[in-house]
Hints:
The structure holds 2 protein chains of 2 kinds.
Chain A: E1 3-7, E2 10-14, E3 19-26, E4 33-38, E5 45-50, E6 56-59, E7 62-66, E8 70-75, E9 84-91, E10 99-101, E11 105-110
Parallel strand pairs in A: 2-11
Antiparallel strand pairs in A: 1-3, 3-8, 4-5, 4-9, 6-7, 7-8, 9-10, 9-11
Chain B: E1 4-7, E2 10-13, E3 19-25, E4 32-38, E5 44-51, E6 57-58, E7 67-73, E8 76-81, E9 90-96, E10 99-100, E11 103-104, E12 109-110, E13 114-118
Parallel strand pairs in B: 2-13
Antiparallel strand pairs in B: 1-3, 3-8, 4-5, 4-9, 5-6, 7-8, 9-12, 9-13, 10-11
Amino acid sequence: EDQVTQSPEALRLQEGESSSLNCSYTVSGLRGLFWYRQDPGKGPEFLFTLYSAGEEKEKERLKATLTKKESFLHITAPKPEDSATYLCAVPRGTSYDKVIFGPGTSLSVIP
Amino acid sequence: GAVVSQHPSRVICKSGTSVKIECRSLDFQATTMFWYRQFPKKSLMLMATSNEGSKATYEQGVEKDKFLINHASLTLSTLTVTSAHPEDSSFYICSARSPEGGLVVNEQFFGPGTRLTVL
Lengths: 111, 119
Protein backbone atom coordinates (compact mmCIF):
# COMPACT_ATOMS: atom_id res chain seq x y z
CA GLU A 1 0.00 0.00 0.00
CA ASP A 2 1.30 3.46 -0.90
CA GLN A 3 2.25 5.36 2.21
CA VAL A 4 3.90 8.63 3.21
CA THR A 5 5.33 9.24 6.67
CA GLN A 6 7.04 12.29 8.12
CA SER A 7 9.33 12.83 11.06
CA PRO A 8 9.55 14.33 13.51
CA GLU A 9 5.90 15.04 14.24
CA ALA A 10 6.87 18.32 15.83
CA LEU A 11 10.11 20.27 15.96
CA ARG A 12 11.03 23.24 18.07
CA LEU A 13 14.08 25.25 17.05
CA GLN A 14 15.78 28.35 18.26
CA GLU A 15 16.06 31.10 15.68
CA GLY A 16 19.18 30.40 13.62
CA GLU A 17 19.32 26.72 14.57
CA SER A 18 19.41 24.71 11.34
CA SER A 19 17.72 21.32 11.06
CA SER A 20 16.09 18.88 8.65
CA LEU A 21 12.64 17.38 8.25
CA ASN A 22 12.19 13.90 6.85
CA CYS A 23 9.61 12.48 4.46
CA SER A 24 9.67 8.75 3.76
CA TYR A 25 7.52 7.07 1.17
CA THR A 26 6.63 3.62 -0.07
CA VAL A 27 5.18 3.92 -3.55
CA SER A 28 5.87 1.91 -6.62
CA GLY A 29 7.44 3.95 -9.36
CA LEU A 30 7.79 7.37 -7.76
CA ARG A 31 6.68 10.05 -10.20
CA GLY A 32 7.47 13.03 -8.09
CA LEU A 33 7.36 14.38 -4.56
CA PHE A 34 5.83 17.65 -3.44
CA TRP A 35 6.58 19.82 -0.43
CA TYR A 36 3.99 22.26 0.93
CA ARG A 37 3.87 24.69 3.80
CA GLN A 38 0.63 25.12 5.74
CA ASP A 39 -0.04 27.91 8.21
CA PRO A 40 -2.77 27.40 10.84
CA GLY A 41 -6.24 27.84 9.38
CA LYS A 42 -4.92 28.20 5.83
CA GLY A 43 -4.60 26.02 2.76
CA PRO A 44 -1.24 24.48 1.85
CA GLU A 45 1.21 26.66 -0.04
CA PHE A 46 3.27 24.95 -2.72
CA LEU A 47 7.04 24.94 -2.16
CA PHE A 48 8.84 22.37 -4.33
CA THR A 49 8.50 19.43 -6.67
CA LEU A 50 11.29 16.87 -6.94
CA TYR A 51 11.26 14.20 -9.62
CA SER A 52 14.41 12.11 -9.39
CA ALA A 53 16.91 10.88 -6.82
CA GLY A 54 19.72 13.37 -6.37
CA GLU A 55 17.60 16.35 -7.31
CA GLU A 56 17.74 19.42 -5.08
CA LYS A 57 15.73 22.63 -5.01
CA GLU A 58 16.15 25.76 -2.92
CA LYS A 59 14.01 28.67 -1.89
CA GLU A 60 15.35 31.19 0.58
CA ARG A 61 16.23 29.24 3.75
CA LEU A 62 14.70 25.98 2.52
CA LYS A 63 16.37 23.24 0.49
CA ALA A 64 14.63 20.04 -0.53
CA THR A 65 16.50 16.90 -1.51
CA LEU A 66 15.35 13.52 -2.78
CA THR A 67 16.70 9.97 -2.55
CA LYS A 68 15.13 6.74 -3.72
CA LYS A 69 13.34 6.24 -0.41
CA GLU A 70 13.00 9.62 1.23
CA SER A 71 13.15 13.37 0.96
CA PHE A 72 14.59 15.94 3.31
CA LEU A 73 13.61 19.54 3.81
CA HIS A 74 16.61 21.35 5.19
CA ILE A 75 16.00 24.63 7.00
CA THR A 76 19.07 26.84 7.34
CA ALA A 77 19.15 29.54 10.01
CA PRO A 78 15.37 29.55 10.45
CA LYS A 79 13.40 32.60 11.47
CA PRO A 80 10.16 32.74 13.47
CA GLU A 81 8.22 33.32 10.25
CA ASP A 82 9.27 29.84 9.11
CA SER A 83 7.01 28.40 11.81
CA ALA A 84 4.35 26.29 10.06
CA THR A 85 3.42 22.72 9.30
CA TYR A 86 5.38 21.25 6.42
CA LEU A 87 3.66 18.59 4.37
CA CYS A 88 5.08 16.27 1.78
CA ALA A 89 2.98 14.42 -0.79
CA VAL A 90 3.42 11.92 -3.58
CA PRO A 91 1.22 11.07 -6.57
CA ARG A 92 -0.69 7.84 -6.26
CA GLY A 93 -0.72 5.63 -9.28
CA THR A 94 -0.20 7.06 -12.73
CA SER A 95 -2.06 10.34 -12.32
CA TYR A 96 -1.02 13.54 -10.61
CA ASP A 97 -4.68 14.07 -9.74
CA LYS A 98 -4.51 11.64 -6.81
CA VAL A 99 -1.96 12.69 -4.22
CA ILE A 100 -1.17 11.10 -0.85
CA PHE A 101 -0.18 13.55 1.85
CA GLY A 102 2.02 12.79 4.81
CA PRO A 103 0.89 13.76 8.32
CA GLY A 104 3.18 16.78 8.38
CA THR A 105 5.86 18.17 10.67
CA SER A 106 4.87 21.09 12.85
CA LEU A 107 7.82 23.47 13.07
CA SER A 108 8.11 26.16 15.73
CA VAL A 109 10.98 28.62 15.56
CA ILE A 110 11.51 30.47 18.80
CA PRO A 111 13.05 33.99 18.73
CA GLY B 1 -0.60 32.91 -11.19
CA ALA B 2 -2.40 29.78 -9.96
CA VAL B 3 -4.59 31.50 -7.40
CA VAL B 4 -7.49 29.56 -5.93
CA SER B 5 -10.10 31.17 -3.71
CA GLN B 6 -12.79 29.75 -1.46
CA HIS B 7 -15.93 31.21 0.02
CA PRO B 8 -16.91 31.39 2.78
CA SER B 9 -13.82 31.12 4.93
CA ARG B 10 -15.89 30.17 7.96
CA VAL B 11 -19.43 28.95 8.38
CA ILE B 12 -21.44 27.91 11.40
CA CYS B 13 -24.72 26.16 10.85
CA LYS B 14 -27.35 24.19 12.71
CA SER B 15 -27.58 20.44 12.46
CA GLY B 16 -29.77 19.37 9.56
CA THR B 17 -29.12 22.35 7.33
CA SER B 18 -27.14 22.35 4.09
CA VAL B 19 -24.04 24.39 3.44
CA LYS B 20 -22.51 25.34 0.11
CA ILE B 21 -18.79 26.07 -0.29
CA GLU B 22 -17.46 27.70 -3.45
CA CYS B 23 -14.03 27.16 -4.98
CA ARG B 24 -12.83 29.44 -7.76
CA SER B 25 -9.72 29.50 -9.91
CA LEU B 26 -9.01 33.21 -10.27
CA ASP B 27 -6.41 33.44 -13.00
CA PHE B 28 -6.75 30.19 -14.92
CA GLN B 29 -9.32 27.72 -16.13
CA ALA B 30 -9.49 24.41 -14.30
CA THR B 31 -11.20 21.47 -15.91
CA THR B 32 -10.49 19.50 -12.76
CA MET B 33 -10.64 20.59 -9.15
CA PHE B 34 -10.15 18.58 -5.99
CA TRP B 35 -11.89 18.65 -2.62
CA TYR B 36 -10.06 17.69 0.56
CA ARG B 37 -11.03 17.41 4.19
CA GLN B 38 -8.65 18.00 7.07
CA PHE B 39 -9.23 17.17 10.73
CA PRO B 40 -7.32 19.03 13.47
CA LYS B 41 -3.65 18.12 13.50
CA LYS B 42 -4.23 15.62 10.70
CA SER B 43 -3.23 15.63 7.09
CA LEU B 44 -5.36 16.22 4.03
CA MET B 45 -7.67 13.49 2.81
CA LEU B 46 -8.93 13.62 -0.76
CA MET B 47 -12.72 13.47 -0.84
CA ALA B 48 -13.48 13.80 -4.53
CA THR B 49 -12.31 14.97 -7.91
CA SER B 50 -14.56 17.54 -9.55
CA ASN B 51 -14.73 17.48 -13.34
CA GLU B 52 -16.18 20.36 -15.35
CA GLY B 53 -19.31 19.30 -17.15
CA SER B 54 -19.45 15.80 -15.72
CA LYS B 55 -20.03 13.94 -12.48
CA ALA B 56 -17.53 14.09 -9.69
CA THR B 57 -15.43 11.07 -8.78
CA TYR B 58 -15.61 10.26 -5.08
CA GLU B 59 -13.00 8.48 -2.98
CA GLN B 60 -13.89 5.29 -1.23
CA GLY B 61 -15.91 5.90 1.90
CA VAL B 62 -17.11 9.38 0.92
CA GLU B 63 -20.90 9.63 0.65
CA LYS B 64 -21.79 11.23 -2.66
CA ASP B 65 -25.30 12.06 -1.49
CA LYS B 66 -23.92 13.81 1.57
CA PHE B 67 -21.24 15.80 -0.24
CA LEU B 68 -22.69 17.10 -3.49
CA ILE B 69 -20.18 18.49 -5.96
CA ASN B 70 -21.00 20.63 -8.96
CA HIS B 71 -18.41 21.91 -11.44
CA ALA B 72 -20.56 24.15 -13.61
CA SER B 73 -17.83 26.22 -15.22
CA LEU B 74 -14.09 26.15 -15.83
CA THR B 75 -13.51 28.45 -12.86
CA LEU B 76 -16.04 27.32 -10.27
CA SER B 77 -16.67 24.15 -8.31
CA THR B 78 -19.06 23.93 -5.39
CA LEU B 79 -19.27 21.48 -2.50
CA THR B 80 -22.61 21.23 -0.73
CA VAL B 81 -22.71 19.45 2.60
CA THR B 82 -26.28 18.25 2.84
CA SER B 83 -28.14 17.73 6.11
CA ALA B 84 -25.00 18.61 8.02
CA HIS B 85 -24.31 17.02 11.40
CA PRO B 86 -21.68 17.80 14.03
CA GLU B 87 -19.43 15.02 12.72
CA ASP B 88 -19.22 16.93 9.40
CA SER B 89 -17.45 19.77 11.18
CA SER B 90 -14.04 20.05 9.59
CA PHE B 91 -11.72 22.14 7.45
CA TYR B 92 -12.56 21.76 3.76
CA ILE B 93 -9.96 22.74 1.17
CA CYS B 94 -10.13 22.75 -2.62
CA SER B 95 -7.29 22.67 -5.11
CA ALA B 96 -6.57 22.72 -8.81
CA ARG B 97 -3.72 22.12 -11.21
CA SER B 98 -3.08 25.13 -13.38
CA PRO B 99 -2.12 25.20 -17.04
CA GLU B 100 1.35 26.44 -17.96
CA GLY B 101 2.76 26.63 -21.42
CA GLY B 102 -0.11 24.64 -22.88
CA LEU B 103 0.22 21.82 -20.36
CA VAL B 104 -1.27 21.28 -16.93
CA VAL B 105 1.37 21.42 -14.23
CA ASN B 106 1.71 18.47 -11.87
CA GLU B 107 1.44 20.47 -8.66
CA GLN B 108 -1.88 21.25 -7.02
CA PHE B 109 -2.54 24.79 -5.82
CA PHE B 110 -4.82 25.11 -2.86
CA GLY B 111 -7.49 27.51 -1.75
CA PRO B 112 -7.42 29.06 1.72
CA GLY B 113 -9.91 26.57 3.12
CA THR B 114 -13.36 26.75 4.73
CA ARG B 115 -13.89 26.01 8.40
CA LEU B 116 -17.30 24.36 8.87
CA THR B 117 -18.80 24.09 12.34
CA VAL B 118 -22.09 22.26 12.72
CA LEU B 119 -23.88 22.87 16.00
